[in-house]
Automatic annotation (TrEMBL):
<dbReference type="InterPro" id="IPR012319">
    <property type="entry name" value="FPG_cat"/>
</dbReference>
<dbReference type="Pfam" id="PF01149">
    <property type="entry name" value="Fapy_DNA_glyco"/>
</dbReference>
<dbReference type="GO" id="GO:0003906">
    <property type="term" value="F:DNA-(apurinic or apyrimidinic site) endonuclease activity"/>
</dbReference>
<keyword id="KW-0238">DNA-binding</keyword>
<keyword id="KW-0234">DNA repair</keyword>
<dbReference type="InterPro" id="IPR035937">
    <property type="entry name" value="FPG_N"/>
</dbReference>
<keyword id="KW-0255">Endonuclease</keyword>
<dbReference type="InterPro" id="IPR015886">
    <property type="entry name" value="H2TH_FPG"/>
</dbReference>
<keyword id="KW-0378">Hydrolase</keyword>
<dbReference type="GO" id="GO:0008270">
    <property type="term" value="F:zinc ion binding"/>
</dbReference>
<keyword id="KW-0227">DNA damage</keyword>
<keyword id="KW-0456">Lyase</keyword>
<protein>
    <submittedName>
        <fullName>Endonuclease</fullName>
    </submittedName>
</protein>
<dbReference type="GO" id="GO:0003684">
    <property type="term" value="F:damaged DNA binding"/>
</dbReference>
<dbReference type="GO" id="GO:0008534">
    <property type="term" value="F:oxidized purine nucleobase lesion DNA N-glycosylase activity"/>
</dbReference>
<dbReference type="Pfam" id="PF06831">
    <property type="entry name" value="H2TH"/>
</dbReference>
<keyword id="KW-0326">Glycosidase</keyword>
Length: 246
């Protein structure tokens, strides 16, 4: 599943399509009113967490890439029908595959809480802290994946942040010392921007210290791994250097 930083890269690549007018639209998504799209100009392309947003005069299109979604700009995937394909009067096309497409009515600023997006200029760490303090029994591995708190944080960022802060994924939020809780909020955003830089430089995996790894680089012992918490996403952790707060 693409995480917030990867969607920011898509937004930057799709920025030149702002102002272009849709000439043709088709796909196999059953939720898109394709006949209403031709003639509509793209007002803006935006992201909120793991959502890619195409703002149009009548409504907006929300693209969620789920686990295996992908896109192509000015090219198409062979032998794979798009969920949504947009061609433009000025030239160029956007194609989205194996993803969920929804329409959003009304103002996007009312539909989304931008201050929850770890990649957004509007990000408010104090708001994230307040939300975390209201969920003391939540596991750290679940809290980082809660999109109402950390929109855009995914499993890679979760594992790397917890390892960086030496926090066991089964720690409860209410048991974390105040300094650790503040660090958790800070690193969720900081690591996301580091992720963005590494992804653009094609060196992201070279910087992974815990995610999908077998040996702890600090302790030189085997990592534990398991599908933890309510989210049941894969976690990788060291029982020696990652403290369990409970």
């Amino acid at each position: 599943m693409p995480e917030g930083p990867s969607l920011v890269i898509l937004k930057e690549l799709a920025k030149p399509f702002e102002g272009r007018t849709i000439a043709e639209a088709h796909g196999n998504s059953t939720t898109v009113p394709y006949d209403e799209l031709p003639g509509q100009p793209i007002l803006s392309v935006r992201t909120w967490g793991k959502h890619f947003l195409i703002e149009l005069p009548l409504f907006s299109l929300r693209v969620h890439f789920l686990m295996f979604g992908s896109y192509r700009i000015d090219e198409r995937k062979e032998h794979s029908p798009p969920r949504l394909s947009l061609a433009f009067e000025e030239g160029g096309e956007l194609n989205f595959y194996t993803c969920s497409i929804r329409t959003i009515d009304g103002d996007l600023n009312e539909a989304y809480e931008w201050q929850a997006d770890v990649m957004a200029d509007e990000w408010k760490p104090a708001v994230a802290l307040k939300k975390l303090r209201a969920m003391p029994d939540t596991l750290a591995c679940d809290a980082l994946l809660d999109q109402t708190v950390f929109s855009g944080v995914g499993n890679i960022i979760k594992n790397e942040v917890l390892f960086r802060l030496k926090i066991h994924p089964l720690s409860t939020i209410g048991a974390l010392p105040a300094t650790k809780l503040r660090e958790l909020v800070k690193q969720a955003r900081q690591y996301s921007f580091e992720f963005l830089e590494w992804k653009k430089a094609f060196v992201l995996k070279q910087h992974w210290l815990a995610h999908t790894k077998r040996i702890c680089p600090r302790c030189n012992i085997a990592f534990h791994k398991g599908h933890l918490g309510k989210t049941k996403r894969r976690s990788f952790w060291c029982e020696k250097c990652q403290k369990r707060y409970e």
